[in-house]
Write a structure and sequence with these properties.
Layout lengths: L1 H22 L9 H19 L5 H24 L1 H8 L3 E5 L2 E2 L1 H6 L4 H10 L8 E6 L5 E5 L8 H4 L10 E5 L2 E2 L1 H7 L3 H10 L7 E6 L4 E6 L5 E4 L8
Antiparallel strand pairs: 1-2, 1-3, 3-4, 5-6, 5-7, 7-8, 8-9
Helix pairs in contact: 1-2, 1-3, 2-3, 3-4
């Protein structure tokens, strides 16, 4: 009996794991309503064949696979048809406009002012007069466009020349070289170790290291503070 439960649990676990990976990597809070419903039902169905040994395993597997296929079908239709996407997912709703809070829109969403203010404060705004537009997205998240005087200052607004943004690539993670990324950056471990050593850091003490396209290296030792090192590496094309 115990052996049967273990085997069934392993099979169901990997089945659900594979299906959820195929369904996408969105967090629970980012899911559309139909995605959340299917995920919850799959989670509930998965527990039945694990515990009910009298139930043939296939009777638990088929409903799970069927729901996954429904998800793929709905996702495909949402990608192909704007009308179907609105029908299934709904559409974003403007809850704050230049005239203030749209009370009718709140009621349609079954929200009250407390719900709205909680969402607004979570985004770093505490006064409604700072907000030009607030839009409730179809996945339940609130996005805000602040009024110009309250918008975050950036280099473009301040007319400051800044270094172009660069995407760093991780070369050491958890103290181990990431070979795939070393090949991507066309760098050798010897270069990394020498650069780190020249900056008074023990290579064996490095737990995390990344480098961007302009050769700026971020080094985090296991003990002590991080260090940013300028190197002569240039021309990364990842």
């Amino acid at each position: 009996m115990t052996y049967t439960l273990i085997v069934r649990s392993i099979i169901i676990y990997f089945l659900v794991f594979i299906l959820l990976r195929l369904m996408g990597k969105r967090q629970i809070g980012e899911m559309q309503p139909f995605e959340l419903v299917i995920t919850l039902i799959i989670a509930d169905l998965a527990t039945i064949p694990m515990a009910e040994t009298a139930l043939p395993l296939v009777h638990g597997v088929i409903p799970i696979i069927t729901l996954a296929l429904i998800h793929f079908a709905l996702t495909f239709l949402c990608m192909k048809s704007l009308y179907f996407r609105k029908l299934i997912n709904g559409k974003p709703v403007i809850v704050i406009n230049p005239n203030g809070v749209d009370y009718k829109a709140l009621k349609k969403l079954n929200m009250n002012f407390n719900d709205l203010m909680e969402n607004v404060r979570s985004l770093g705004y505490f006064n409604l007069e700072e907000i030009l537009y607030a839009i409730m997205q179809t996945n339940g998240t609130l996005t805000i466009l602040p009024r110009a005087p309250y918008a975050p200052l950036n280099a473009n607004n301040a007319k400051i020349d800044v270094e172009p943004a660069n995407l760093p690539v991780i070369l050491i993670s958890e103290g181990k070289f990431v070979k795939e990324n070393l090949n991507l950056a066309k760098l050798e471990p010897d270069f990394i170790n020498k650069t780190v050593s020249d900056n008074n850091i023990d290579p064996n003490n490095v737990i995390f290291l990344s480098i961007n396209n302009n050769g700026k290296m971020y080094v985090q030792p296991k003990t002590g503070s991080f260090k940013v090192i300028e190197t002569n590496f240039k021309g990364g094309s990842w």
